[in-house]
């Protein structure tokens, strides 16, 4: 569910999803990685999502994320989505602390889909 939430950030494709297996052979979703800003409206691969959510590659609604969460038996999908939105809303603060130039902070924030 949290990985689907990364669609809010515009950087989700199959290489960003991985699984880990423990010594007993049990699989689990790997922690998030390669979560970077890569939106380029003119780019062949970056002008839209490479993976779909609920059959869509754009114009996602919160209900699309909830539907996928329910299909794969995620408990509390609505709460998880809101937690992701809450963290992404803090982007400007994190970015400034990391020393990211103000212009980039605003440009990247402009593409966050916080109204989902």
Give a topology summary.
Layout: H1 2-5, E1 19-21, E2 27-29, H2 62-71, H3 77-88, H4 91-97, H5 102-110
Antiparallel strand pairs: 1-2
Helix pairs in contact: 4-5
How would you sum up this structure, described in words?
By secondary structure, the chain is mainly alpha-helical. It has one domain (2-110). It has helices at 2-5, 62-71, 77-88, 91-97, 102-110; strands at 19-21, 27-29. A two-stranded antiparallel sheet has the order 1-2. Helix 4 runs antiparallel to helix 5 (102-110). The model has no long low-confidence stretch (mean pLDDT 83).
Short description:
With 116 residues, the protein is mainly α.
Succession of helices and strands: HEEHHHH
Share in β-strands: 5-15%
Number of extended strands: 2
What's the average pLDDT? Answer: 83
Envelope shape:
globular
Given as residue ranges, the uncertain stretches (5+ residues, pLDDT < 50) are none
Oligomer: single chain
Distance between the termini: 14 Å
The domain count comes to 1
Report the helical percentage: 25-40%
Number of helices: 5
Biggest sheet, spatial arrangement of strands:
1-2
Main sheet record: 2 strands, antiparallel
Helix/strand class: mainly alpha
| Rounded Rg | 15 Å
């Amino acid at each position: 569910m949290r990985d689907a939430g990364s669609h809010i950030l515009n950087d989700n494709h199959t290489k960003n999803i991985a699984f880990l297996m423990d010594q007993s052979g049990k699989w689990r979703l790997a922690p998030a990685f390669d979560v970077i800003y890569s939106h380029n409206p003119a780019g062949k691969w970056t002008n839209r999502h490479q993976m779909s959510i609920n059959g869509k590659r754009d114009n996602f609604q919160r209900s699309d994320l909830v539907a996928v969460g329910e299909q794969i038996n995620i408990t509390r999908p609505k709460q998880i989505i809101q937690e992701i939105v809450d963290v992404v809303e803090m982007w400007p603060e994190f970015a400034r602390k990391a020393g990211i130039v103000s212009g980039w902070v605003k440009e990247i924030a402009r593409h966050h889909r916080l109204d989902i």
